[in-house]
Amino acid sequence: MKGGYVDDDIQFLAHDHPNKTLCQICSCDLTSLSVHNRQVHYDQHFSQQSSGSARPKPHTAVGKDQARNASSKPPSKSGFKPPSGIFSRTVPAEEQNIFWHASQASSPPRNFSPGLIPVLKKALTRSHEKGVTQKAWLAFERAVHVQGEAWDRSWGCGYRNYLMACAALMDQQVQPMYFPLLDAPLAPGVRNLQKTLEEAWQKGYDEEGAEQLQHRLVDTKKWIGTADIYVAFTYRGVPAQLVDFNDLRNGVDPLVQWIYNYFSGGDPHHKTTTVGEALRGARAVVVTDKLPIILQHEGHSRTIVGCERVKNGEINLLTFDPAKRILPSIREAGLHYHGQAPQAQSGPSKVIHKVMHPVETIKSKKRKSLEPPPDSSKRQRPSDPGARSTGEVIVIGSDSEEEKETSAPASRAKATQSDELNPNDVLKVFRIQPKSLKKKDKYQILYFPLSDPLTEQEKRRRRIVTSEKVA
Fold first, then answer.
1. What is the DSSP string of 194-261?
2. Which H or E run includes 37?
């Protein structure tokens, strides 16, 4: 399954109006068009631009079920010429390798959105208060949404999902040694991923996949899928596992149940043994330490960051879709939560990051040194190493009553920003209902068990791509 073409499950990037579907390129109103005709419209835009090569249909499995499901859609033969200037800008190579994770001191790039898990938690909590959501489970709190951009929007969803996975893997604290494995010799990036895969092929990884992509991927617009992402992580020594759902013609329950089990622990009646477990079990919305997973079907892939059980018992999935535009109000709320979180973590991943990127750390310290030294009477800032964030804005104390009066309202305004979001508007960006999943009968999942880094012997054993078959 290759994630290149958009389908009817995807919200296009140019959705500036909640009730309209607009073309991402020419802003034409596509609302009245059928799904097929919308695809034809996009094919006309890209027919003369893409040099991509789709991979053929599924082939014979090796060992376990081979995790290789490709799709091929021929480009439109129409002579439609896109508006002049649409493709004229050449994107510099460094812009095609932009990457960021939540432990970095720098501000996130425009298409990276941190802090959305807390935004989702707030929306789901309010949905629970209204009687819609019974319970929900969310992935690692510092997961980052990565949106595709104009230069890769017709073929880049697999690459963007890879970047979302890297952002979480390099920030989690369970396996801190994942950070150096992913950060060097090539840091995550769209084009760097292509180089990584070509290097892996040269070392004997996934010979079948290499042949399907003609042993060339660098600087092309060829689509990749979860099997290719598995190869990249395996080559770097990060354990990953593929799961195939090959026959869901009778319904998607096996897929939904697997994802529910992954995030919730599987047993809603599990007897808690500690006070902490009891408190977590009592919450309507639980933020877990589970890493996001990548879900792929024919034509598209997206990152799953949780699931929700609603009042009728149905399970909805919660996604970070690289093809979806995050509304500015939602991104701002996420940036607010990200700004509240302690940035100077004492965890091993943060320490490794500082050691491997001393220039960035020095620049960050220089910026801080330009600020006036804090008065000893002031309270500790949340970003200081010893501070603990509680999700509330801490107003820094001052000897000046006038300063208190002016700073407190501004802080309260920021604190209420996320409260002003309509939970329904938030959830419709991230929620997928089972009826939408039923449009496809084959899916593949890539997940990360957070086990120890792979040894060289383990990496050699995994050079042939295999997967676990569930349905």
1. HHHHHHHHHTTS-HHHHHHTTT--TTS-----HHHHHHHHHHHT---EEEEE---TT-SHHHHHHHHH
2. helix 35-46
Buried b (16+ CB within 10 A) or exposed e, 403-435: eeeeeeeeeeeeeeebeebebeebbebbbbeee
Mean pLDDT of the chain: 77
Does residue 35 sit in helix, strand or coil? helix
**pLDDT above 90: residue 132:** yes
pLDDT, average across residues 299-320 = 97
pLDDT, position 46:
54
Amino acid 33: pLDDT: 76
Instruction: Look at residue 457 in the predicted model and tell me its pLDDT.
Output: 97
- Contacts of residue 359, defined as CB under 8 A and 6 or more positions apart, other chains included, come to none
Provide the terminal-to-terminal Cα distance of the chain, rounded to the nearest Å.
16
Give me the pLDDT at residue 379, please: 31
Sequence-distant (≥ 6) Cβ neighbours of residue 331 within 8 angstroms: 113, 116
What is the spatial distance between Cα 465 and Cα 60, in angstroms, rounded to a whole number? 12
What is the sign, positive or negative, of the torsion defined by CA atoms of 149, 14, 331, 122?
Answer: negative
Amino acid at residue number 223: W
Neighbours of 52 (CB within 10 A): 15
In this prediction, residue 1 carries a pLDDT of: 53
Assign 278 to helix, strand or coil: helix
Region of 175 please: left (phi>0), alpha (psi -120 to 50) or beta: beta
Cβ proximity of 117 and 140 under 8 Å: yes
Distances in Å between the Cα of 375 and the Cα atoms of 216, 367, 371, 403 are: 59, 18, 12, 14
Q: Which residue has the tokens 């995807």?
A: 10
**Average pLDDT, stretch 34-49?**
61
For 348-383, write each residue's pLDDT tens digit. 555 665 566 655 554 444 444 444 444 433 333 333
pLDDT exceeding 90 applies to what percent of the chain? Answer: 58
For residue 70, the model assigns a pLDDT of 39
| Confidence (pLDDT) at 282 | 73
DSSP designation for 65:
B
Within 13 A of 88's CA, how many CA atoms are on the CB side? 5
Give the Cα separation of 18 and 10 in Å (integer): 14
d(CA 304, CA 116): 13
Q: What does the block give as tokens for 377?
A: 């009477």
- Model confidence pLDDT, tens digit, residues 19-34: 567 676 666 777 777 7
Dihedrals phi, psi of 444, to nearest 5 degrees: -140, 140
Spatial distance between the Cα atoms of 144 and 119, rounded to a whole number of angstroms: 12
CA 209 vs CA 132, 205, 240, 408: distances in Å: 44, 9, 17, 58
